[in-house]
Structures are given as C-alpha cells and as structure tokens.
Write a structure and sequence with these properties.
The longest helix has 19 residues. The radius of gyration is 23 Å and the shape is globular. Helix 5 links the parallel strand 7 and strand 8. The protein is of the alpha/beta class and about 425 residues long. It folds into two domains: about 160 residues, Lyase, Ornithine Decarboxylase, Chain A, domain 1 (Beta Barrel); about 180 residues, TIM Barrel (Alpha-Beta Barrel). The strands form three sheets. Strands 4, 14, 15, 16, 17, 18, 19, 20 and 21 form a nine-stranded mixed sheet that branches. The model has no long low-confidence stretch (mean pLDDT about 95). The protein binds ligand LLP. The site of ligand LLP has 21 residues, from helix 10 and helix 11.
C-alpha cells in the first residue's frame, strides 16, 4: 500500500527507498504522509455522527512536521511533559486543543500549561490536584480538569504497557471518583469538566475498551446527577494494530447510542487519544546489513541500526516485520537480526527468514510510533535522520546528527590541571 515493491525495489509511496537511504545514509526513518492521512480519516469516519475529538498522543512520534500534519487535519494533542507542550506550541496548535496527562507533572510544567491556557489537565492524584489549585491561585487562573480514573481492567499486552489495573501507578480508583470530583469542585481555582482514562497500549481486543467506556459512562451519569457539569469523556489511546479502527469506532458508537437513550438531554464530546494507531504503520526504519555471521548452527544478520534507534524489541520483545529493500534471488537463511550495540538484548528480530547479502538494506516495519521518539544516544550513536514522503516528493524532517552533536552540551573540564 504505502510501502510496496516496484520491480523488486521497495518504494515509499512513489519514491525508491534505496534512493533515499543512499542519499541520506543508514539507519534512516521514512514516513508515508498518506498513511498518516488515511489513519486519521479512518478514525474520523468511524466516529462520524458522534460529537468527538481526536487528540494525537505526542509521545508516539513528536517530530514537528508530524505534529504539524495532525494539527492541519484538525487533531488536538495529548501531552505528558513541558517539552511536548513546547513542541505543540511551536507548530501553532491551539492551546485549547491540548490535554496534559501524566503522573508526575512538575510545578513548573503546571505553571507553564496554566499560563498557556491549555484545554485540560488530566489529574492522576489528589496531591497533584492540590498543586494545580495552588499554582492556579498564584497565577489567578481557573484550571480545567478531568480525573484520570483507573477502571481496573486487565488487558492482554506487555506488562510494561498495561496501565488500567489497580496495581499500576496510573489514575485514581474509579470507586473514589465521585468523592474526588465533589471535593475538586469545591476548590476555588479548579473547574472539573471531563472524565478520562487510558487502560494501556497495544490492545488488540475490543472488550477492554468496551468495559472501560461503560464504566466511564456510568461515572458520567453519576457526576451529572451529583450536579457537576462534565463536558467530555476521554477513552484514552491504546488501540493496537491488529484491530481495525472501523470496528473500534463501531463499538464506541454502539455503547454511546445505548447510553444516549438513557441520557438524551446530555451534551458532551467523546475524546480519544490514539498514538500508535495513527502513526505506527506510516513509518519504516531502514538499516544496512554490515555482516552475515555464523556461530555453530546460528546465523546472525548484523545491521547498522540498534536498540538505540528502535528499542521496542529489546524492551518489550515487540515483533516488527523485517523485509528486504531489494528482493534478491539469493539463497534463503534464517537469521537473528541484531544491532551493533554491546548488549545481548540488542536485537531487532529473531529467527527471520531472509534472502540477503552483506551491504543490502532491510526495512523494519510499523516503526512510525515509539521508534524515533524512544531513540537514545547509547554507545555514542548519533540519531538517525527522518524523511517524510508524499507521492513523488520527500522532505528531510530531521537531519542526521553529527558526532559533534553528541557532545555539544558537554563541558570539557581538565580535572587533573
Ligand atoms: N494517552 C495516554 C495518557 C498515554 O499514556 C498513551 C500512551 C496514549 C494516550 C497513547 O497510547 P497508544 O495509542 O499509542 O497506545 N512505548 C510503548 C507504548 C507506551 C504507551 C504509553 N502511553 C511501545 O513502544 O509500545
């Protein structure tokens, strides 16, 4: 579709991937703009007819050009740090369309967000709410808030990315939500206006979302009856890549329609915060094969991208398809595809059947989300360049770092005089 073969060469939309990697160097992230537009359109269509808003989760991929594209499509943003706030303001996002999530908002971040008049703080604890109250009082502002409730729902995902269980650090227990909202409403500089949750990431079943949404709708009814004026319900992000956006939207429409029969007079907006489902499939990571190495019975394909470029396999044992940039007729072998970093955990794929030779390029698929945004400089490796492609055009949206960039912020002190 967005990445396909033409005469055995992999193309990103209308551009040869090999041409790009030869021009900009390896490893290289390449994004298809059409893939982003399509994913966004699918969410919009799936929720059409329902008052809704899509807030892109910035952490998935925070490149300014990617943010700008979503901004132009009409998305709002879910941010989790002052740095992400600076990014979305930089691309001209309307502060009203910014939601601030996260368990550890600092005093400075809260003040910064209040001064910019962001749309809402998603509050994860009572001490955080007290801090927001005191900052809002100091700055003479009213803080719009939602509590992020923890609906205690088990999901089948990697334990590091499931967040909706009681034992996780996220949110406030849903059972105590009513009391917290009433207390919050009595504070002078706090205005409760939403309900939020986020049950985890990479969720490929619809039931957990369905259960969470039902719990949020019940809580909404409870809060309305208690006299609060709640304007939005935020189901969070978390949709995996194996479930269609269409069926996710249909599930939401169904639950909301049923609820609307009970509360026809209530006007509110449904918010979702997808990250991965909007951007993962739009990105590929290109890497060059440095060596093919055989040890006993095992074959290694040693490439020039490592866990510093893409940490998901090492951190979550995440599976990413790996395909050749050129479909050669070379003999086929089963390889562990590993990076150059001095760690056994530095692998990109295990037991992959490939027909390749040294010097060839591979494409690691579905790496548009949590690829570059989780990259690091480990082993003093400069960050890869990022290219955005649309039809036959391409743009460098981040240039490759130089070695100087690696230590530009360091001060050389001669300790021994
Ligand atoms: N909203 C909140 C409050 C979140 O914490 C997250 C992700 C999202 C939305 C977006 O979730 P998504 O739709 O992308 O699943 N690094 C991991 C994923 C961590 C997700 C953390 N929170 C990975 O590479 O799989």
């Amino acid at each position: 579709m967005f990445f396909s073969y033409q005469d055995k060469f992999l193309f990103a939309e209308g551009i040869s991937v090999r041409m790009l990697v030869e021009l900009y160097g390896s490893p290289l992230y390449i994004y298809s703009q059409q893939a982003m537009l399509d994913a966004y359109a699918q969410f919009s269509q799936a929720l059409s007819g329902l008052s809704h808003h899509i807030h892109y989760a910035v952490k998935a991929n925070s490149n300014l050009s990617i943010l700008s594209a979503f901004n132009q499509l009409g998305a709002g943003f879910d941010i989790v740090s002052g740095g992400e706030l600076a990014r979305v303001l930089e691309i001209g996002a309307s502060p009203q369309n910014i939601i601030f999530s996260g368990v550890g908002k600092s005093q400075a971040e809260i003040a910064q967000a209040l001064s910019e008049h962001i749309g809402c703080f998603q509050v994860e604890s009572w001490p955080e709410l007290e801090r927001i109250q005191s900052e809002a009082a100091r700055l003479d502002k009213t803080a719009p808030i939602a509590f992020r409730v923890n609906p205690d729902i088990a999901i089948d995902s990697h334990p590091y990315i499931s967040t909706g269980l009681k034992e996780n650090k996220f949110g406030v227990p849903i059972e105590s939500a009513l009391e917290l909202y009433l207390q919050a409403a009595s504070l002078p500089n706090i205005s409760p206006m939403g309900i939020a949750c986020h049950i985890g990431s990479n969720i490929d079943a619809l039931e957990p979302f369905e259960q969470a949404l039902d719990k949020l709708l019940d809580l909404f009814a409870e809060l309305i009856e208690a006299g609060l004026s709640i304007q939005y319900i935020n189901l969070g992000g978390g949709l995996g890549l194996k479930t269609s956006i269409q069926s996710y939207g249909a599930m939401i429409q169904d639950r909301v329609q049923k609820f609307k029969h009970r509360y026809p007079e209530e006007n509110w907006t449904l918010i979702i915060e997808p990250g991965r489902a909007l951007i993962a499939e739009a990105g590929i990571l290109i890497t060059k094969i440095e060596y093919l190495k055989t040890m006993d019975e095992k074959h290694f394909c040693i490439v020039d991208a490592g866990m510093n470029d893409l940490i998901r396999p090492a951190l979550y044992e995440a599976f990413h398809d790996i395909i050749p940039v050129y479909q050669s007729e070379h003999f086929t072998q089963t390889y562990d595809v590993v990076g150059p970093i001095c760690e056994t955990g530095d692998f990109l794929g295990k037991q992959r059947t490939l027909s390749v030779s040294m010097g060839d390029y591979l494409a690691i698929l579905s790496t548009g989300a949590y690829g570059m945004s989780m990259a690091s400089h480990y082993n003093s490796r400069p960050l890869a360049a990022e290219i955005l492609v649309h039809e036959n055009k391409h743009w460098v949206i981040r240039s490759k770092e130089s070695y100087r960039d690696l230590f530009a912020k360091e001060q050389l002190i001669n300790l021994l005089g």
